[in-house]
Amino acid sequence: MEILIIRHGQSEADLLNVHEGRADFPLTDLGRNQAMNLAEYLKEYGDFDAIWTSTLSRASETAEIISKYINCSINYDDNLKERDNGILAGTPITNENKNSHYNMKPFECIQEGETDIEFRARAEAVLLRILDIQKIQVELLYYLMEV
């Protein structure tokens, strides 16, 4: 199995120069075009079994655009959301706060946010679940082909 990890296209937050995190910003027109360009490339890349995406607008919209081009089902999962950056979500990026999480210890977090440890545990858990589900689907496909 091969896994491609794709970042969403440009979002409104990029234009507003604000922290994204859990704040839900849609794609811009450029972001939609970026998703379409990637989808056209992926169509030539090969066949895909599934798309897994965050439920945030910018990610799900990117996935939906790609899905139309490669004719692939989409699985939405809240656990694929970006790191929870707490009270910074949706606020302007300033010199004082743009790298604030880099100086934190793995067990510390921005107020109301997620620690490095929590984020990593969530990411690992969702990846293992996806691998398990996709493996089951592949095994079922092999079984059906043998029958």
List keywords for this structure.
single chain; 147 residues; mainly alpha; Rossmann fold; 4 helices; flat; His_PPase_superfam
Looking at how many chains there are and whether they match, the oligomeric state comes to single chain
User: What is the name of the CATH architecture?
Assistant: 3-Layer(aba) Sandwich
CATH topology: Rossmann fold
User: What fraction of residues sit in β-strands?
Assistant: under 5%
Structural class, from secondary structure content? mainly alpha
| CATH top level assignment | Alpha Beta
Can you write the helix and strand succession as a string? HHEHEH
How many domains is the backbone divided into? 1
The CATH superfamily label reads Phosphoglycerate mutase-like
| Estimated helix fraction | 40-55%
Write down the Rg: 18 Å
Shape: flat
Distance between the termini: 22 Å
Low-confidence residue ranges: none
Largest sheet: 2 strands, parallel
Q: Taking all residues together, what is the mean pLDDT?
A: 89
What is the helix tally?
A: 4
